[in-house]
Write a structure and sequence with these properties.
Strand content: 5-15%
Order of helices and strands: HHEEHHHHEEHEEH
Largest sheet: 2 strands, antiparallel
Structural class: mainly alpha
Number of domains: 1
Number of helices: 8
CATH architecture: Orthogonal Bundle
Bound molecules: zinc ion
CATH class: Mainly Alpha
Oligomer: single chain
Length: about 220
């Protein structure tokens, strides 16, 4: 099942939410931001998590393009025979995601990150970057993780690399949090020329804000 718009997100059950991976979720502009956006209403009082277990995480990683479909399938098969590790990695992934989200949302709001969150993401970043290997290819070299890597945490490594790239070398003045007043909370890089993007998506939060403004103007006109 594919859910096509984020509009439906308020009414979906957790099981449906997990398989509700759709192109509208990949609006962040960096894998770490898209991963942070696997929670709907992330800045609101009742966040809704689209990831429910390790398999869901690996499916998301394949849809996001951070691992290949083949790697995701292999890791999902491995997770079934290693349920303890699978559960541990999934919990670690969620804790990593929330620390990452607090750091990034804080930057977008002009706040300094909590050292505890930095320490938490450093654990995963160290794990990820420490396993990178240089490989010679025709015409150059590639820095990547070994093919056939069996560790279930493998899905987190490209996300951690994306986070370290963004924090250490990205243009953080372009990092934004959706201006939606219901608590959408999604994060994205504003790549618009005049740096004027305010909403995660014009089809969703942006459209609602526009419709709201239109409605208020109409009401004012009727009242005057
Ligand atoms: Zn939004």
């Amino acid at each position: 099942m594919v859910i096509n718009t984020k509009h439906i997100r308020t009414g979906i059950r957790p099981q449906e939410a997990q398989i509700g991976i759709h192109p509208g979720m990949f609006i962040g502009g960096a894998p770490c931001l898209d991963f942070a956006n696997t929670v709907d209403w992330h800045a609101g009082g009742a966040p809704e998590d689209r990831l429910q277990d390790y398999a869901g995480l690996a499916e998301w990683a394949a849809a996001a393009g951070v691992v290949t479909q083949e790697t995701a399938r292999r890791l999902i098969r491995a997770s079934r025979v290693r349920p303890g590790e699978s559960e541990r990695v999934f919990k670690r992934a969620l804790a990593f995601r929330e620390s990452m989200y607090r750091i990034l949302a804080g930057i977008a709001q002009g706040r300094r990150p909590d050292p505890k969150d930095i320490a938490a993401v450093n654990g995963v970043i160290g794990d990820a970057l420490g396993r990178l290997q240089l490989r010679a290819e025709t015409g150059g070299f590639r820095l990547d993780w070994p093919e056939g890597e069996g560790k279930l945490a493998r899905v987190l490594w490209p996300i951690a690399r994306s986070l370290s790239d963004l924090l250490a070398a990205g243009d953080l003045t372009r990092l934004r949090q959706c201006a939606d007043d219901r608590g959408c909370g999604w994060l994205f890089m504003d790549s618009s020329r005049n740096r004027s993007r305010r909403w995660c998506s014009m089809d969703d939060c942006g459209n609602r804000a526009k419709a709201g403004r239109h409605f208020r103007r109409l009401k004012e006109r009727v009242a005057s």
